[in-house]
């Protein structure tokens, strides 16, 4: 979306395009409404009013035309009051979004754990010297100790220990 907007702004048949996009990018990024910010622009959330772009000045945007200074000050005070409300709305929306992510994660992930004596396979971390048909898992190994939740010490089937602790991310249950 940002690239499409930039292409439209910088396209000119007669001029070279190199380097021109970098001048336009800050305007595009700060003035695009964001769902994360409850439909507001990052510029509004920081400064309390919408950005005045060169195009607004050139074409005389209606929001910039005031009859007197008192009207402009009243509008600015109203925008400042609105800013605090919009910031609170953004915080609430962010909390809702995080809760929905947590619910999704909790629904579709199953907690895993191993007990002492379980048989597991260990992921091959270094693939140097292997080909694409080499197995990604080796083992089986026996879980000999739970060092902390999600971290296990392993030993070979004959009882010799296997180096350091292994994270559960690199282990898989072995079904005999």
Your description of this structure?
The protein is of the alpha+beta class and 176 residues long. The protein has two domains: 31-108, no CATH class; 119-173, SH3 type barrels (Roll). Helix content is 40%, strand content 18%. The chain contains five helices and five strands; from the N terminus they run αααααβββββ. The chain has helices spanning 2-10, 21-30, 42-47, 54-59, 69-108; strands spanning 119-123, 137-148, 151-155, 161-167, 171-173. It has a five-stranded antiparallel beta sheet, with no helix packed on it. The model has no long low-confidence stretch (mean pLDDT 79). This is Reverse transcriptase. It comes from Paspalum notatum var. saurae.
Give a short summary of the structure.
The chain is an alpha+beta fold. It is built from five helices and five strands.
Features of the shown structure:
single chain; 176 residues; alpha+beta; SH3 type barrels; 2 domains; 5 helices
Unreliable parts: none
Strand content: 15-25%
Number of domains: 2
**Arrangement of strands in the largest sheet:** 4-3-2-1-5
- What does the main sheet amount to? 5 strands, antiparallel
Q: What general outline do the C-alpha atoms trace? A: elongated
Protein name: Reverse transcriptase
Organism: Paspalum notatum var. saurae
């Amino acid at each position: 979306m940002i690239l499409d907007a930039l292409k439209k702004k910088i396209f000119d048949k007669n001029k070279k395009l190199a380097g021109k996009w970098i001048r336009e990018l800050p305007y595009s990024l700060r003035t695009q409404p964001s769902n994360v910010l409850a439909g507001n622009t990052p510029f509004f959330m920081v400064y309390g009013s919408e950005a005045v772009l060169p195009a607004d000045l050139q074409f005389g945007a209606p929001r910039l035309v005031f009859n007197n200074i008192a009207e402009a000050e009243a509008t600015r005070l109203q925008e400042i009051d609105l800013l605090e409300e919009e910031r609170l709305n953004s915080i609430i929306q962010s909390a809702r979004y995080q809760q929905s992510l947590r619910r999704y994660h909790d629904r579709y992930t199953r907690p895993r754990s191993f007990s002492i004596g379980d048989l597991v396979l260990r992921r091959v971390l270094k693939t140097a010297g292997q080909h694409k048909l080499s197995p990604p898992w080796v083992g089986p190994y026996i879980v000999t100790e739970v060092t902390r939740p999600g971290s296990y010490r392993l030993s070979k089937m004959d009882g010799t220990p296997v180096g350091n602790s292994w994270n559960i991310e690199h282990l898989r249950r072995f079904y005999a």
